[in-house]
Write a structure and sequence with these properties.
Elements lengths: L3 E4 L5 H14 L8 H5 L3 H13 L3 E8 L2 E9 L12 E7 L8 H10 L2 H15 L6 H13 L4 H9 L17 H11 L3 E2 L12 H11 L17 H4 L2 H15 L6 E2 L2 H4 L8 H13 L5 H10 L3 H4 L13 H9 L2 H4 L2
Antiparallel strand pairs: 1-2, 2-3, 3-4, 5-6
Length: 344
């Protein structure tokens, strides 16, 4: 018998509590809480949750039941109550009884939620934030949401709406997004044409260059596949930009340029072939062309040019009259640490 999927009713607090406790007993991460915490909640909390899921405009809960027995549920919020002013719909919990998994119950409840009006806005806002700006232009979000609804959730069509929008191509959107640690590490290795040793076998399997770079990603604050919330790591600059994080990124760049990371090698000599190492400005120009394709602001160029008078860059002492051997590794790290490279 096919289960019925419907919106929860306001008087179903006890049933909601029973299913939530069963879910947390078998799947502790199902609702981002703990069994002990939920068991201690007073009765009126469950009544309020059921009532909100039944009739609230910013919260919706759907249940799947067969002959009065609840098999699963899914809850979505139109906005995060802990972040007022940052209205972003989100899925906050889903559970299906283990005996019903593989029979389409989860698909049924998600199908209902997908067609809820808030879902189109949620997905559109996520995609616009990912590809355009941390604060998604509301007009573009609405256009993308309209495409989602019109095409019955065709993500390709939604992305086409975003990528052809004037907001996507605007000056304000150019390099508006800060790279995550994973993006920094991957793009830096690519920019310097890094070559990675493949992983070995047996006890040597963790000694490849990829594993060394993955450890650097973790050091920068984004250990792979270890995000605690089910929504994954944040996609906002405020999470990744602070003095400590920027220092860590610079230290990574220095290590990469100096070939300090096991299994990973870069060859700056290939970039600098034909330049005079006694001419720091030549070395800088070549690195800017190779790493940033010459797309550098006047402010960043001025800061980098000022570093060419630094004895640590020119490798000069008080007795030297001119530079003889520019420290290309440190200069490359400074370029990798520039605002232009740290942004997508």
């Amino acid at each position: 018998m096919k289960p019925e999927v419907r919106r929860i009713r306001a008087d179903e607090g006890p049933q909601l509590r029973a299913l939530r406790l069963r879910a947390l007993a078998g799947a502790p991460l199902a609702f981002g809480s703990t069994l002990a915490r939920e068991e201690a909640l007073p009765e009126h909390i469950w009544h309020d949750r059921a009532a909100a899921g039944a009739s609230s405009s910013d919260r919706v809960t759907f249940v799947a039941e067969r002959e009065g027995h609840w098999l699963g549920l899914v809850t979505g919020l139109a906005a995060d109550p802990d972040q007022p002013g940052k209205s972003e719909p989100m899925l906050v919990g889903m559970f299906v009884e283990s005996s019903e998994r593989g029979h389409g119950v989860g698909f049924q409840v998600l199908e209902i939620l997908v067609h809820h009006p808030a879902t189109a806005h949620f997905i559109a806002a996520k995609l616009v934030r990912r590809f355009v700006a941390d604060d998604p232009p509301p007009v573009l979000v609405e256009r993308a949401a309209a495409t989602f609804r019109r095409t019955d959730g065709n993500i390709r069509a939604v992305l086409q709406t975003i990528f052809t929008a004037p907001e996507f191509w605007s000056v304000e959107a150019y390099r508006a997004k800060i790279k995550t640690p994973l993006e920094v590490v991957a793009s830096a290795a690519r920019a310097l044409d890094g070559h990675l040793t493949p992983p070995g076998v047996g006890v040597q399997r963790l000694q490849g260059g990829g594993f060394a770079l993955a450890r650097q990603v973790a050091t920068l604050g984004e250990p792979l596949y270890e995000a605690q919330p089910p929504t994954g790591y944040p996609d906002r600059a405020e999470v990744w930009v602070n003095a400590r994080a920027l220092l860590a990124r610079m230290n990574f760049a220095l290590g990469l340029a100096h070939n300090r990371w096991p299994g990973t090698r870069v060859d700056l000599a290939s970039f600098l072939h034909g330049t005079d190492p006694s001419q720091p400005d030549q070395v800088l120009d070549r690195l800017l062309a190779a790493v940033l394709h010459g797309q550098v602001s006047l402010e960043t160029r001025a800061v980098l040019l000022a570093q060419l008078r630094n004895p640590e860059i020119t490798r000069t002492t008080a007795d030297d009259r001119v530079a003889t051997d520019t420290d290309a590794e440190k200069l490359a790290a400074l370029v990798l640490g520039s605002p232009e490279f740290q942004r997508r």
